[in-house]
Amino acid sequence: MNPYWGANLIEFFQVFFSRLGGFLGSSLATDEIQLGVLSFVAIACGLIGPFLVLKKMTMFANSLSHTILLGIIGSFLLFGGSCLLNVFHLLVGASFAAILTVFLTEGLVKWFEVTEDASIGLSFTFLFALGIVLSNLFLRDLHLGVESVMGNTDALIVNDLKLSFFLFLLNASIVFLFYRQFKMICFDQNFAAVLGVPLLFFRFLLFFLSAATCVGAFRAVGVILVLAFLVGPYLTARLFCHRLAPLLFYTCLIGVFASFLGVALTRHILTVYDLPLSTGGMVVFLIGLFYFAGLGVRRFVLRYSIN
């Protein structure tokens, strides 16, 4: 029996905090798995999202969030259904899709003199469509349409929690180890090159982390809505903070808060209004709402501080 069944917004948090101390000694409820997976995905995205925006690679991240579907389908076909539970197989597919996306995008620009934005648009639509065609041909029983966009948090299990935690550790470890290099590359690429920082290596490393994070977010929020996790919390934090290290912290914090509130609101709406909404969609909606609310607060503060 799910302890959160029939709980409204206030009761949800009452139940959560009453069970908080016993998490390690008891089985996790569905809502708690959702909270864990979405929070780890939010942190994993929050650690690399600011670098993607600062490097002006947001549209390329959007491209990766689509084309990663091809890597997931390829892993499924190559390794079998167990790949959904095997982090290594998923990362192999993610890496292949990321490399293929980079090769196709850069190749169209350098060899065929296509503009960068047109190249991104052509490559990600082609590879995303190829992933959908392969799923229709070989995975007819796989209901992929809506889940690829919004995910399916109701289907999350403990293994998904382990996967999202692994990706959180991966992103946190790499950002911690190479924080200075990422910082130099984002703010002064020429200075980084003079100091001997391998620009191409860190560019592909950022691509790989983005692809791996999209894999971790596939079942929770889908490969498309994950873009909001990569960009939205950072843009909100950027309204009130201008230093990179605090930005990373506040970006992760906003993402986690949106995840908690999104799960609680979805349960509340189901209890009170009997409307089953997408939890991933609700979280992404809140991320957008936080940004526009932050814009309003910032303009209000600036207006009255000047007066």
Tally the helices.
13
Largest sheet: none
CATH architecture: Orthogonal Bundle
CATH superfamily: ABC transporter involved in vitamin B12 uptake, BtuC
What oligomeric arrangement do these chains adopt?
single chain
Structure notes:
There is one protein chain. The protein is an all-alpha fold. The chain has a single domain (29-301), classed as Orthogonal Bundle (ABC transporter involved in vitamin B12 uptake, BtuC). Helices cover 79% and strands 0% of the residues. The chain is built from 13 helices and no strands. It has helices at residues 9-19, 30-54, 58-79, 87-111, 116-138, 145-150, 158-177, 179-187, 189-194, 199-216, 218-238, 244-273, 279-306. The chain is globular. 44% of the residues are buried.
Top keywords for this entry?
13 helices; ABC transporter involved in vitamin B12 uptake, BtuC; 307 residues; mainly alpha; 0% strand
Secondary-structure blueprint:
Layout (H helix, E strand, L loop, with lengths): L8 H11 L10 H25 L3 H22 L7 H25 L4 H23 L6 H6 L7 H20 L1 H9 L1 H6 L4 H18 L1 H21 L5 H30 L5 H28 L1
Helix pairs in contact: 2-7, 2-10, 2-11, 2-12, 3-4, 3-5, 3-10, 3-11, 4-5, 4-10, 7-10, 11-12, 11-13, 12-13
How would you concisely characterize the structure shown here?
This protein has helices at 9-19, 30-54, 58-79, 87-111, 116-138, 145-150, 158-177, 179-187, 189-194, 199-216, 218-238, 244-273, 279-306. It is an all-alpha fold and 307 residues long.
